[in-house]
Structures are given as structure tokens and as C-alpha cells.
Design brief:
Layout (H helix, E strand, L loop, with lengths): L5 H11 L1 H11 L16 H15 L9 E5 L5 H10 L2 E6 L2 H13 L6 E5 L12 E7 L8 H11 E10 L2 E2 L9 H7 L7 H10 L3 E7 L3 H15 L1 H4 L5 H19 L3 E2 L1 E6 L1
Parallel strand pairs: 1-2, 1-4, 2-3, 4-5
Antiparallel strand pairs: 5-9, 6-8, 7-9
Helix pairs in contact: 9-11
Length: 277
Amino acid sequence: MSEYSEAVKTAQSYYNSDDADNFYSRLWGGEDIHIGLYQSDDEPVTKASHRTVARMAELVADKLGPESRVLDIGGGYGGSARYVAENYGARVVSLNLSEVQNERGRKQTAERGLDDKVTIVDGDFENIPYDADSFDVVWSQDAILHSGNRPRVLDEVVRVLKPGGVFVFTDPMSADGVSPDVLGPVLDRIQLDTMGSPGFYREQLTRRGLTERTVEDHTEQVPRHYERIHRELDARRGELNGHISETYVANMKKGLQHWVEAGSAGRLAWGIMVFDN
């Protein structure tokens, strides 16, 4: 396997840490750890996150079935892969850089009896370890922002996507036209210099020959989600004592507030983007 880039290694180190694993597995249940589609401010995080997965699958349902091969890049604990396999019968690969998350995900996959349909692979999306034209669907949730070379990730996506295949993804983004200078607190939190934007993804994917199928703008969910996580962290602080360090909690709360403020100020964007090959 190729050496990971510095940005990928930074993300890998973070998600492999005990603090991060305990935070995401306990707060989200170790299934879906992505921005949710909330129907109310007090809706459980897990329910809203699950709704995002279900909506993404609905948008590409014409490409999902028992004969389909799906690749989830940055698949976290493999929750989305299990959902697609259970509900559509597809064979799914979850490619993820965190060995800690992957170990937990493999156990959950085995417990659900999905080993024959879901494969969890250690690796990164800047060097996808599969041949060209291998997948009917490439899927990604809130992961590509962790790359320091997003055009490289998109090159890899297009390379492994079959002709007639579809790319469906979400990513926390900068709003179009927003300077990285005003996103300093958010960027510092994720240890990157830039974020993608809707215009960036449209331009880059169109240049690579893909055609926009649909883009659903759900930007209002960004501050809603991070505020919801902040309140959940406060509400469950006692339960998390002994599992997550005080330093991690303090840094997490500060970081969540930065996301809320930037989202509320219109500096961020988020939604579900679908492009046909």
C-alpha cells in the first residue's frame, strides 16, 4: 500500500485515538458518524444520521441491487455499508483509514450476519486499492474534507467507477466564494488549510466527465447538527467520564462551537451531491 499523505495520516491518528473512538462510538452508537438530516432540533443524533444514509441510498436506488458493487470511501464504522447491503442486497466495500474503527465495524458486520456482503478494508481514498471500472456506486459521507489533495481523491473515484456508474457523497464544505481566511477556527480544528465547496466539486467532477444528477442543499443542517452534538455531549457528560479525557471534551466543545458559528453565519455548505459517470 502506498504511504499515506500527511493529511491522511493526521486523520488516521485522530480517529485511531481512544478519545475519538469512545466519543464517536458512544455518542453515535458506532454506526453512522455523519451529519444528520434532522426533522427537529431535539431529534436523536442516531436517528438523524441514519436518515442521511437512507436518503442517499434513495437517490441512487436505480444503481443498487444484488448485482451491484458499492465502494464507500472513508466508511467509518461501516454503518452505511451495512445499511446498503441489508436493504438493497448489494456487495459493499467500506474503505477506511482507521484500523480501530475498522475492527469495531468488522465485529458489527459479523454480528449482523453480513460478512458475505460487506468487506471492510484498511486503506485510504487517495490510493484506492482496486482496479479501474470496479464499482457501480462510489459513496462517501463527510470524509473527503480530510484529504489535503481532493483532486487526487476525485481522480481515484472516477478511475474505479464503472461507465454508467454513480458517485453519491456529502462533505462539509465552504460556501462558494468564502475565503479560507474567515474559516480559520474551523480549519484549525481539522488541521487543514482549505475545504471544498459546491462549486469546486461541480467543476472538478464535470471536468472529469461526470454529469450532475442532483444536488440537494441541506446547509441548514450544519449548525443544527453541531449544536445538537454539543448538547448531547453536555447531557451525557457523566456517562462519558472515564472514557474520554477532559482535554478532548474541552477541545471538542470549542470545535463544535466554531462549526455552529460558521454555519450560522452562512460560511459553510453541506448537502447530498450525485453525479453520473
